[in-house]
Task: inverse folding
């Protein structure tokens, strides 16, 4: 019979229990969805890497011959070695898209994944083309295309379209923020296509993945000649970006549900406390009739237990079924792997168990008070608790407060848990809105930050590697530009490992800008080396500490003391003026010219020019990629409104039930319905304001945390513009006032006689 | 049941007062006992101690050979479940259960209970069995409360002001029903009331005043409940 009572009580308090159900549902939906998705991402990526046998180490140097390959194979811990030639070239189209060309003898290591056509055949002719590039350009296996590289041209049939484990997240260059398919690509060819050229890379797998660092050191020791650089998987942009991505998803899997589950807990506290307090006589009766404490406790605990169990299980199921598909559809825009799988990790089961346990525990704690006393005491009505005067009541301000304010203040103080829950709910709603608008601002700002503030020119002319200073200087003169050099640099980390990054050296001119941590413009003086914020973090280098570095290919290590730290969204590393660079005895070898003048398309026909980038186009390209971000913002906003509506409606109903008699009294005394509604709306506005004040900084912190979990290669500055704060505040108020407006209609329908008769 | 020098104190703020002091009482099986006294005299305390709903601070309470005053919480719960049926002044039905379900509820704690329909028939409520408390009159609710109390065939039927919330006619019906339980079923019925007229129907009358049992009288020929008027 107690089961029947349980069901009927649940139905009687359906609004409150529905909100607890919804919060548990949403919490677990997001947690299990995100957790399944991030676990799935790990499985998808790791599975892909394993299947394609992604290289553990990459050795770069010009002229790597067969002897050195054998020498490499002899190093203990090395499993397999392959030599290859990697060149930058372009496909022969009107816009000369840049192509990364991999010439292979065999592909046991870092093997490409065939999408369409024939498998790669060592020694045979033909091109195996980047599937994304082929799709955008409408190229199919069987078509013929021409590639230009190292001053030569080859025309071959496309024999297959492929994906490649080293190109899962493929951006044009270190300065690019997002992939733009079709604009550039990669292709795999047989090494026999250019027998006269010598390999410049070796890819290596190690027998035990635990030993990668050790093997890397051994290789560095054995190949200590000039210009040898050894990189591990972390030097691959796709690898690190994807890793950071699933870390970020995992973090969100914990952050968002915490908000919902906190609300669910508060909901259980208010609902169960109120219910057990209202059912005090029933509890006393059950005790008097001979029901054991355990039995009664289990009965009341089962409210929280069943509601959260149903909500959690359904949430976990829907989250598992729907969210990974949705998230992966966004991921597929950026990360190119053959398939995305779903994996339900143990964390999901643990989360359901935790949620149910916490709900049951909170139910128990909420009703423990009523169950502790002996039946004779429980059967008596509860003695009214002594109410202490709050600080406000003893202050001189109290006398000047209107009746409605005093009434509301006392009501808030008397129902602290309910009020706190209201504030937390509103804060959650406001926080999610701030976060949603902040994500939008930060991402939109990134384009104009990178291609407006930090690089303020209109065009960038990029040059072939090895172009002489004199040649670049001619372009500088012609386009009144500024020369910059962007080259690879390696750092010696405190643990002895090396980290490769970007060195930017800039000549005189006004197109390159640096901003410090506070985003204020700083000018680098001669003799000063600045380090990017993320790079300093990777190297754990604090201001005043020494950083050891050298340009890739140089033997001698250089040092500098960390002074200026600058922020840049993409292309982490160090920067200095040309004078500083030359003072260190290096030759300034510019790789690009920045200019505000228009650059005719014909310039790309020049042999030494690899491409011309329009900053406006780069920015526009980024905006196009904002679609996925817009979807995320949409989810956040829906979650915000749902959270606000559910919590406020639930509390509103609770509050009206509890205040029924007081409202009826006010009406009997002659207060107009409108006036009573205004009094109630006043309390709502107070609580909403408090919630917003709490929600704004938390939203800001939340956004910063999201930005902080981006990959080491990217630095996103959390930005929330004033109008966004305004919209978040307005949105929260709108939700709150509308919910209260709907609820306060109840005032009109209160039956004064019945309400006053009730016990 | 015997009370030997039983005392119970309550604390109100800093003030401690005797709700019951030095109580001596014997109750015999099958008797109809009326505990009489003004408001605050200690009669409900006495009833609570008899029903194992509260514990004594001093003295001994014996239930047959068992020393009830030494029982712990768990033993007291068992005692209530097995031997005691309670009828409250305000009925105390579970509002979300029907009349039948309120009675059948006792099946959750006692295996051998009578058929709930039979219990409802005994109080004349067969037709209203599917109604919720809010759909019934006060008298009907009190009868459900009695049916709930008798369904487990308790040895003690405790009634705390059972007519307190009822009109005279309905109250009389309830009194008749309780007397019937005692006379026909041999159940010990203990009724607390402040109405001295009810003393006329009791086998034994216990008068309580200021937390003390003033006197206990035994009536050879108690009146029929139908003859009592108030």
Result:
């Amino acid at each position: 019979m107690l089961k029947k009572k349980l069901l009927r009580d649940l139905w009687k308090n359906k609004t409150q229990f529905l909100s607890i159900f919804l919060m548990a549902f949403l919490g677990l939906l997001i947690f299990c969805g995100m957790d399944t998705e991030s676990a799935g991402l790990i499985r998808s990526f790791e599975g892909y890497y394993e299947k394609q046998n992604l290289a553990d180490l990459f050795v770069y140097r010009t002229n790597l011959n067969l002897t050195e390959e054998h020498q490499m194979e002899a190093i203990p811990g090395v499993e397999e070695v392959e030599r290859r030639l990697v060149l930058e070239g372009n496909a022969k189209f009107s816009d000369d898209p840049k192509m990364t060309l991999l010439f292979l003898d065999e592909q046991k290591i870092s093997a490409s994944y065939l999408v369409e056509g024939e498998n790669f055949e060592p020694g045979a002719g033909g091109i195996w083309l980047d599937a994304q590039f082929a799709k955008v350009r409408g190229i199919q296996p069987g078509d013929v295309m021409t590639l230009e590289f190292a001053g030569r041209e080859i025309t071959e049939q496309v024999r297959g379209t492929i994906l490649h484990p080293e190109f899962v997240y493929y951006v044009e260059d270190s300065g690019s923020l997002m992939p733009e398919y079709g604009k550039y690509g990669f292709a795999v060819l047989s090494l026999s296509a250019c027998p006269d050229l010598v390999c410049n890379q070796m890819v290596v797998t190690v027998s035990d993945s635990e030993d990668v660092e050790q093997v890397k050191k051994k290789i560095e020791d054995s190949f200590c000649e000039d210009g040898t650089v050894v990189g591990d998987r972390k030097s691959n942009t796709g690898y690190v970006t994807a890793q950071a991505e699933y870390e970020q998803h995992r973090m969100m899997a914990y952050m968002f549900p915490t908000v919902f589950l906190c609300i669910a807990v508060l909901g259980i506290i208010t609902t169960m406390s109120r219910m057990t307090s209202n059912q005090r006589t029933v509890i006393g009766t059950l005790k008097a009739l001979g029901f054991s404490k355990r039995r009664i406790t289990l009965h009341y605990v089962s409210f929280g237990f069943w509601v959260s169990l149903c909500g959690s299980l359904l949430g976990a199921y829907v989250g598992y079924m729907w969210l990974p598909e949705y998230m992966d559809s966004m991921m597929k825009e950026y990360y190119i792997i053959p398939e995305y799988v779903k994996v339900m990790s143990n964390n999901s089961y643990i989360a359901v168990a935790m949620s149910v346990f916490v709900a049951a525990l909170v139910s128990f704690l909420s009703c423990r008070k009523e169950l502790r006393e002996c039946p004779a005491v429980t059967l008596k009505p509860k003695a009214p608790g002594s109410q202490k005067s709050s600080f406000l009541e003893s202050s001189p301000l109290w006398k000047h407060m209107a009746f409605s304010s005093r009434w509301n203040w006392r009501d808030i103080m008397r129902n602290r848990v309910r009020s706190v829950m209201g504030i937390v709910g509103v804060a959650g709603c406001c926080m999610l809105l701030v976060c949603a608008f902040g994500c939008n601002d930060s991402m939109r700002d990134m384009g104009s930050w990178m291609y407006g503030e930090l690089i303020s020119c209109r065009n960038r002319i990029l040059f072939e590697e090895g172009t002489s200073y004199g040649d670049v200087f001619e372009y500088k003169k012609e386009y009144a530009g500024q020369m910059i050099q962007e080259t690879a640099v390696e750092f010696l980390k405190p643990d002895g490992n090396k980290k490769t990054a970007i060195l930017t050296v800039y000549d005189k001119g006004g197109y390159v800008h640096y901003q410090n941590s506070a985003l204020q413009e700083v000018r680098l003086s001669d003799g000063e080396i600045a380090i990017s914020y993320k790079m300093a973090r990777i190297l754990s280098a604090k201001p005043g500490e020494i950083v050891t570095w050298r340009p890739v290919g140089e033997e001698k290590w250089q040092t500098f003391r960390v002074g200026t730290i600058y922020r840049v969204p993409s292309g982490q590393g160090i920067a200095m003026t040309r004078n500083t660079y030359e003072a260190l005895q290096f030759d300034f070898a510019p790789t690009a010219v920045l200019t505000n003048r228009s650059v005719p398309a014909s310039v790309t026909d020049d042999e030494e020019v690899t491409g011309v980038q329009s900053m406006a186009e780069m920015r526009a390209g980024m905006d196009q990629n904002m679609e996925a971000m817009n979807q995320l913002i949409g989810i956040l906003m829906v979650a915000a409104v749902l959270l606000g509506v559910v919590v406020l409606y639930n509390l509103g109903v609770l509050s009206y039930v509890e205040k029924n008699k007081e409202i009826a009294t006010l009406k009997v005394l002659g207060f107009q319905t409108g006036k009573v509604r205004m009094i109630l709306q006043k309390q709502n506005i107070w609580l909403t304001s408090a919630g917003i004040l709490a929600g704004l900084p938390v939203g800001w912190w939340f956004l910063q945390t999201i930005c902080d979990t981006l990959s080491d290669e990217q630095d996103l500055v959390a930005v929330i513009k004033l109008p966004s704060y305004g919209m978040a505040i307005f949105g929260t108020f709108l939700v709150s006032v509308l919910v209260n407006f709907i609820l306060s209609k109840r005032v009109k329908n209160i039956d004064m006689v019945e309400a006053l008769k009730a016990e | 049941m015997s009370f030997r020098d039983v005392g119970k104190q309550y604390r109100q703020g800093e003030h401690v007062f005797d709700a019951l002091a030095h109580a001596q009482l014997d109750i015999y099986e099958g008797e109809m006992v009326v505990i009489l006294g003004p408001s605050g005299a200690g009669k409900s305390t006495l009833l609570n101690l008899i029903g194992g709903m509260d514990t004594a601070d001093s003295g001994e309470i014996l239930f047959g050979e068992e020393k009830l005053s030494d029982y712990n919480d768990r033993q007291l719960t068992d005692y209530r479940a097995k031997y005691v049926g309670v009828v409250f002044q305000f009925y105390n039905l579970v509002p979300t259960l029907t009349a039948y379900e309120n009675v059948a509820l006792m099946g959750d704690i006692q295996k051998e209970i009578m058929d709930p329909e039979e219990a409802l028939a005994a109080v004349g409520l067969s037709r209203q069995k599917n109604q919720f408390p809010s759909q019934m009159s006060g008298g009907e609710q009190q009868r459900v409360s009695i049916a709930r109390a008798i369904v487990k065939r308790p040895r003690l039927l405790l009634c705390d002001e059972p007519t307190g919330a009822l009109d005279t006619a309905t109250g009389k019906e309830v009194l008749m029903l309780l007397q019937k339980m005692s006379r026909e079923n041999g159940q010990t019925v203990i009724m607390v009331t402040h109405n001295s007229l009810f003393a006329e129907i009791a086998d034994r009358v216990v008068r309580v005043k200021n937390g003390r049992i003033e006197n206990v009288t035994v009536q050879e020929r108690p009146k029929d409940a139908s003859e009592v008027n108030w």
Remarks:
- Chain B touches chain A at residues 44-45, 48, 51, 53-55, 73-74, 77-82, 84, 86, 88, 90, 92, 94-97, 101-102, 104-110, 148 (CB under 8 Å).
- Chain B has a mean pLDDT of 88.
